[in-house]
UniProtKB/TrEMBL annotation:
Cofactor(s), by name: Mg(2+)
Lineage: Bacteria, Pseudomonadati, Pseudomonadota, Alphaproteobacteria, Rhodobacterales
Gene Ontology cellular-component terms listed: cytoplasm
Protein name in the entry: Ribonuclease G
EC code: 3.1.26.-
Pfam families tied to this protein: RNase_E_G (PF10150)
Amino acid sequence: MKGRTIVLDHLGGREAAALILDGQLDDLLIDDPDRPRPGAIFRAICDRPMKGQGGMMVRLPAGRGFLRGVTGYRPGAAVLVQVTGFAEEGKAIPVTPKLLFKSRHAIVTPDAPGLNISRQIKDEEERLRLRGLADGEVPDGMGLILRSCCEGAEGAEITEDIAAMVDLASAVLGDSDGPDPEALTEGDGPHAIAWREWTAPASVVTEPGGFALEGVLDGLEALRGAAVRLDGATMYVEPTRALVAVDVNTGGDTSPAAALKANLASARALPRALRLRGLGGQVAVDFAPMSKAHRKQVEQALRAAFRADPVETALVGWTQLGHFELQRKRERALLAVPSESLS
């Protein structure tokens, strides 16, 4: 089945959204009501500096956060912070003082003045139109980013988005002082994120039971195991406490040609495999044995695959043992759905 379909439903009692591309489950968002959502904004209270780690621990309404790479904050001071991802088990929630107020067409940046238009918009006349729409819409001291989906969009839709984000930013900034930590925004859930981020034309299914009707549950069942079946090979994706281990296996064919074919297929499939499972942090890939001459081809395939992936990922490079390492932002909830939810 060709085309794009967005399915908005619930999974195990949690809000969820799925993106189906040409009949295959391509992306998945699942809410985690037990943890703060990435994008949520808090008034935090500085607790103590972590000199060895280059940051500051802060108190949140429930739990603690970690501001990485900041200086000049004193214990007891109030600071506005935004959640950047999900915390590892037993660790502080990652937060940043650089706030982003993000909607479908616009991102307001209180600490970064100026206007930026997505580089994906190439047409100069369109860029001039968007500059005209944005002129005077943002107060002095705030910045604005116009996103790629602004291209060809109605002017009223764009200016309404800008106004909504400016109003939200102004309200949050006006509530920055206080003696106690407080939640100021909840962050967007999967349905709102799907509307905001999956902007390419698609059919949208919102009826209850949509996951079953559109085959999403079948796709989720396949994700419950570590194996990712490829043409003539298998890739195993297994999270451990320290990292995500990925192993590429060619099966019975150990020829150099089979190894290269399997490694290239794994490189192309890896972003989707990590994305659907909600995996982040350090990733170590043990490709099938290959010559150093073939490494460049595999690395190029990796870079091309992750360039199109929405989750921020840094490709670190090859280790002395021949593994390839990546560092991936933890901005997705882990796929941990009770089996009864898939029935």
